[in-house]
Structure formats: structure tokens, C-alpha cells
Amino acid sequence: MTRPVNWNRPTGGPYPDLSRYSDIWVEVSVPRQRAYIHTGSRVIYTMIVSTGNDDSPDTATPRGTFHIQAERGPWFYNPKYDEGAEYWVSFLNHGQYLFHSVPMDEHHRVILSVAADLGHEDSHGCIHLSLPDAKWFYNNIATGTKVVIHD
Question: What's the pTM value of the predicted model, to 2 decimals?
């Protein structure tokens, strides 16, 4: 059995200063459950993620090439799923598919059973990140940044 990922810590070590790089883009590997921040062809940071549960088309993470959209925010709550999250950034359908923190309840408390699955397919199609990774992504990945999600 693999050890749970600590969702209270950066999952890839110290964050890079993106102002030192050009041609930034994001790669998400569904089989590896990783997001890679690239400068050109070089990976400069790796994050552990949770993508959608591929058992159903309603909960799968879309594959393809997308771009970070203008929609982002510090918090959301979705009563349909009884879950919310911090530091969300849209990559498809203007708020439907997001990068965001591990899920939280309506009182901003981490849902421990879901957070414990970080590193495994376990979302409704969004891409879950640890709390610090989500905040860093929100603050550093610019609108228009290319995102490639693949098997």
C-alpha cells in the first residue's frame, strides 16, 4: 500500500520562480497522476494530482490541449456535489473544469476521505492539488497558459 500524500505541503519541493522562464506550459499525465510545469521541453516542477474517475464519462477529466481561462477564484462551493475548494483556475468551459485544492466542505474544512486519495483518480473531472500547490498554481499560472492532458 502506498503512503498517502500530505495535502498540506507542496508535493514537488520548493517552487520555481516562473519570472525566470519563458514558454511556460502545463502537462497532466493521467496514468502518472502528475502535473508537470514546463519551460519549453524542460520540466521545472512536478506536482502530485488527482484527476477524474474514468469509470464514468460524467466524472472523467477531459483529454486534449486547452488553455487556462480567465475564470479563477479563491473559493467555490458546489451544493450538487456537497464539495468546494480553494484556489480554483478554469481550463475548460469557463468554470466547469478546474485545477483546485483538495475538496472541502461548505465550512472550508478539508474532506479527509477525498484528500487522502491525492495521487489517485478521484475527482468529478477537475484536477485536485495539495493546498499549497493549488495556491501557487492560482498565483503563478497565467491566463492563456497551454495545458495538455493525456493518457
Answer: 0.96
